[in-house]
Specification:
- The structure is a single chain.
- By secondary structure, the chain is mainly alpha-helical.
- The chain has a single domain, classed as 434 Repressor (Amino-terminal Domain).
- Helix content is 50%, strand content 6%.
- It is built from six helices and two strands.
- Strands 1-2 form a two-stranded antiparallel sheet.
- A hairpin with a 2-residue loop joins strand 1 and strand 2.
- The N and C termini lie far apart (52 Å).
């Protein structure tokens, strides 16, 4: 870190927080994945409630995924991406700094809101 004035220093978040390279990589990975979940959900026109239903969780828990809450593991963010049709290549593209990929397949379940059914999600076989 470089001192730039009285009581002010300049440096990266990693330096300022004293994170190891592994800790910084984990945080960046989680940020990339959770940002992609939100972007993908919005691109599909889905609500948090419909995504939560598809994942078997609550809307409030799903909102934690999108916020990158420390209580939520990376695997739940990955499951959310997979549910929306993003495959491993798409995840790899995200990690390489590319934008949220178009789904390589249809969502694994009907993560759409059906107003005739009161907003419930219609699950279908993923295989």
């Amino acid at each position: 870190m470089k001192e730039i004035g009285k009581g002010w220093v300049e440096g990266s978040a990693q330096e300022l927080l004293g994170l190891t390279d592994a800790e910084a990589a984990y945080i960046e990975t989680k940020a990339v994945l959770t940002r992609a979940v939100r972007e993908r959900r919005l691109a599909l026109g889905l609500s948090q409630a419909s995504m939560a239903k598809a994942l078997g969780t609550s809307q409030s828990r799903f909102s934690f995924i999108e916020r990158g809450d420390p209580s939520v593991s990376i695997d739940l963010a990955l499951r959310a991406l997979f549910e929306t049709g993003v495959d491993m290549r798409g995840v790899a593209a995200l990690m390489a700094g590319e934008t949220v990929p178009k789904a390589s397949s249809e969502p694994c379940c009907a993560v759409r809101e059906d107003t005739k059914r009161g907003g419930r999600v219609s699950p279908r076989a993923a295989f």
